[in-house]
Amino acid sequence: MLVLIKGAGDIATGIALRLYRAHFKVVMTDIAAPTAIRRTVCFSQAVVEGEAEVEGVHAVHAHNVEEALAATDQNQIAVCVDPKAEIAKTLMPNALVDAILAKKNIGTKITDAPIVIAVGPGFTAGVDCHAVIETQRGHYLGRVLTHGSAAPNTGIPGNIGGYTSERLLRAPTDGVFEQCLEIGAQVKAGDIAGIVDGQPMICEIDGILRGILRTGTPVHKGMKSGDVDPRCELAHCFTASDKALAVGGGILEALLHFSL
Hints:
Helices cover about 20% and strands about 30% of the residues. The chain is of the alpha/beta class. The strands form three sheets. It has a nine-stranded mixed β-sheet with strand order 3-4-5-2-1-6-7-8-9, with helices on both faces. Strands 10-17-15-12 form a four-stranded antiparallel β-sheet, with no helix packed on it.
């Protein structure tokens, strides 16, 4: 089965890993200048660097349908620059997964593929798609909804190690981002992780830098630009998160439910 995933950030990558390991063929789409924070676990990096590897799974940048199909035939994941997923019209996937996580539907229709699954809030199962996967951390994370919608966006990040909003790093002003620390660096509250137009982006808690934007990325004030993990496990910086894999498990369940 060929699955097209809209988005190639960390949640989409967790989905891709689950499907790839279950022997699905996977093609992903993203924007030309990805803004994923957890770059070490995002297949979107294939757009930037030509290829990317996460947990031993290899992805390559494909420029057209032919290259995408060639990559999947070679047991690789293909990533295309295609913000609107126009490739679906010629690729004709068996299933389409909207994992952009825009918190709203920005173009996915239930008629886009034989099976259409959406991730997170902004979609209604049976209207926009065949199923919605819950993304809110807690008891219902990863559940498959065949009726209704996922929990609405609260605007508050999930609790990790006792912290929510404090663990996120946000751009202090509009401008071009300058990265000061590498992913995996140990940080203390008060450390400067990045700079925008001369203004510092300061860590609020102690931990390990799990993600940060690349130098040269345009940002706006308040834009999520980094992530400090208080658990201080270096391996967490280079492996898919529990949330990403839980959502991926929900996608896999939904695909099997609608295809068998």
